[in-house]
Design brief:
Low-confidence stretches: 1-24
Shape: globular
Radius of gyration: 21 Å
Order of helices and strands: EEHEHEHEHEHHHHHHHEHEHE
Bound molecules: S-adenosylmethionine
Strand order of the largest sheet: 5-4-3-6-7-9-8
Structural class: alpha/beta
Number of strands: 9
Strand content: 5-15%
Length: 328
């Protein structure tokens, strides 16, 4: 195993970790930083709300002195099965649970945990979900437009692009993709319906947005982000997940959240600010009437970003931001 970890967060990490099937697994982002943010406690109980293939969970379970257990939640049963195989050596200390992290309170309770010492959320999707066939998340391949992390999820990207009204689709692409050309892209999609594959959608977007010579970022990136967020209802889950995490944390427990785009980060920042505030009355009120009791203390006001060395090794980490708060 290419990794050893202690509670101070110092670590030795091979450039690439090979999973049990011999493939290159997702490289956990801000690994040392998120572990030290969690301030792991000996015999503590932790929730990894986005366990994926288990990179962060593995590091938590390897820490010294040892924690008691990690509840590893993920909507994607396929990734979770890999995590389970990979973390088999930890036996019942790793508890894999297929579900939504916004339901972590009930999932924890079902597994005998009424409160926990720390919660980690590493939002979005893993590089494996983009690389592996079947998810329909990649514009580099041509496959059915799905984008669901949970194969039983309510709606696919294909349903959205082929059934939403043009205006609604344009607004979705503008809002969740922060794509200024959202309306033009929606118009082109509606004209070419049915749009059924990732490749078809990517080339249609490129025909609308164009690609500057030497442009590294694929012009479909923003639209794919928008559809992925909508399909998986990601922003709603972030808000509900943060609230559930705070409810589950024991006093002094840490909540560490890694996000990858500004829409998520804004939600986390304002949630932390609200939960750390001693008064949430409108500024127009002359005296405080809200009786607000803060539930969180913000640990780092400035986001923690990956080092240059990490970005070099793992370009996907480039946009990552870590925020941490403590339950009071
Ligand atoms: C960035 S990956 C996590 C990778 C993991 N930390 C690791 O090191 O292997 C994000 C994971 O979150 C999962 N996910 C996204 N939204 C979720 C939700 N609402 N509930 C549970 N899991 C979710 C995705 O399926 C994906 O596996």
């Amino acid at each position: 195993m290419g990794l050893t970890m202690n509670h101070s967060g110092s670590h030795k990490l091979d450039l690439f970790q090979t999973g049990d099937q011999g493939h290159i697994t997702h490289l956990p982002v801000l690994l040392a930083e998120s572990l030290s943010a969690l301030m792991l406690r000996e015999n503590g109980v932790y929730v990894d709300g986005t366990a994926g293939e288990g990179g962060h969970s593995q590091a938590i379970l390897l820490s010294e002195p040892p924690v008691r257990s990690v509840l590893g939640i993920d909507r994607d049963r396929r990734s979770l099965a890999t995590a389970q195989l990979r973390l088999a050596e930890f036996g019942s200390r790793f508890v894999p649970v297929s579900g939504n992290y916004s339901d972590m309170a009930s999932l924890a309770e079902e597994n005998g945990m009424s409160s926990v010492d720390g919660v980690l959320l590493d939002l979005g999707f893993s590089s494996r979900q983009v690389e592996l066939p079947g998810y329909g998340l990649s514009f580099q391949t041509d496959e059915p437009l799905d984008m669901r992390y949970d194969p039983d999820g309510d709606i696919t990207a294909e349903e959205i692009v082929n059934t939403y009204e043009e205006r609604e689709l344009g607004q979705l692409i503008r809002r969740y993709g922060e794509e200024p050309r959202g309306m033009s892209i929606a118009r082109a999609i509606v004209k070419q319906r049915p749009v059924t594959t990732t490749g078809q959608l990517a080339s249609l977007i490129e025909s609308v947005v164009g690609r500057r010579p030497g442009q590294r970022v694929n012009p479909a990136t923003k639209t794919f982000q928008a559809l992925r967020i909508a399909v998986n209802d990601e922003l709603t889950n972030v808000g509900q997940g943060l609230d559930a995490a705070v409810g589950l944390l024991a006093t002094g427990g840490r909540l560490a959240v890694i996000s990858y785009h500004s829409l998520e980060d804004r939600i986390i920042k304002s949630f932390f600010n609200r939960e750390a505030a001693t008064c949430v009355c409108p500024p127009s009120l002359p005296v405080c009437v809200c009786n607000q009791t803060p539930r969180l203390k913000i640990i780092n006001r400035r986001v923690i970003k990956p080092s240059e060395a990490e970005v070099q090794t793992n370009p996907r980490s480039r946009s990552a931001k870590l925020r941490t708060a403590e339950r009071i």
